Each structure stands twice: as structure tokens, then as C-alpha cells.
Amino acid sequence: MITLYGIPNCDSVKKAIVWLKQHDLPYQFHNYKTEGITKPKLREWCKHWGWEKVLNRKGTTWKALSAEQQAAINTEKTAIQFLIENTSAIRRPVLEYGNLMFLGFDEDNYQELLSPQKADPL
């Protein structure tokens, strides 16, 4: 089963949902806003991509911080704590399918690895 993590009003998440539906791929949606996110899950993502990529520095949540607050988020530990408290600052969407993990929406990557004839994580 595909799990898509994000927030429903995010344009990139909306694009990923449309793509999954167009390709008849069932998925479950994990809404950060209502369901939160765990430290172990964030640690897993940070191990896979690095905390610097998981942290969305382009969004309004990050930009609303003072320069001092931003500077204090300088390790995986401080980033994870910040992301647990500010889930909107997690880059999105995150898609997990078996051993596959995608950060952000890239239609070419989704097509290459998730098209029904290729997608078989078992």
C-alpha cells in the first residue's frame, strides 16, 4: 500500500493525489496537521535524505522565523524537534511504497517507479 504524507491544501500534495488517482493506484493519506508525525518516522526520512532536505526552508513556516530561530535549527536533532512542532515545515509530499521513498512530487519519478506494470514492492 502506498502512503502519502502531507497536508491537503499543498499544491504538490494535490498533484501527487491527482497522479495516483489517474493511475488507479490505491493509497492512504497521512495528514500531518491532524495526525502529526513521529520522531522515528522523521529520523528514518532524515537518514534517507538528510535533515536539510526534509526541512522545507522555502515555505512560510520557515520564513516566519527570526534569523536567530533559523540559525538554532542546525542539527538533525533540532530539526526533528522543530518539525514535530511545525509539521507544515516538512517538505512534501513524502510517498512511501514498500522500500521506495520519494520526497516532493516529480511526475517522471512517479511514472518510472510507480506505474502499475512496474510497481511491485514485494
Brief overview, please?
The protein is 48% helix and 15% strand.
Explain this structure:
It is a single chain. Helix 3 (39-49) packs across helix 7. The longest helix has 12 residues, at 11-22. With 122 residues, the chain is an alpha+beta fold. It has a 4-stranded mixed beta sheet. It has one domain: Glutaredoxin. The relative contact order is 0.21. The protein is built from 8 helices and 4 strands.
Unreliable runs, pLDDT <50, ≥5 residues? none
Mean pLDDT: 92
Structural class: alpha+beta
**At the first level of CATH, what is the class?**
Alpha Beta
Q: How many helices does DSSP assign?
A: 8
CATH superfamily: Glutaredoxin
Number of domains in the coordinates? 1
What is the helix fraction of residues, given as a range? 40-55%
CATH topology: Glutaredoxin
Order of helices and strands: EHEHHHHHHEEH
List the helices and strands and how they pair.
Layout lengths: L1 E5 L4 H12 L4 E5 H4 L3 H11 L1 H4 L5 H4 L3 H6 L3 H10 L8 E4 L2 E4 L3 H8 L8
Parallel strand pairs: 1-2
Antiparallel strand pairs: 1-3, 3-4
Helix pairs in contact: 3-7
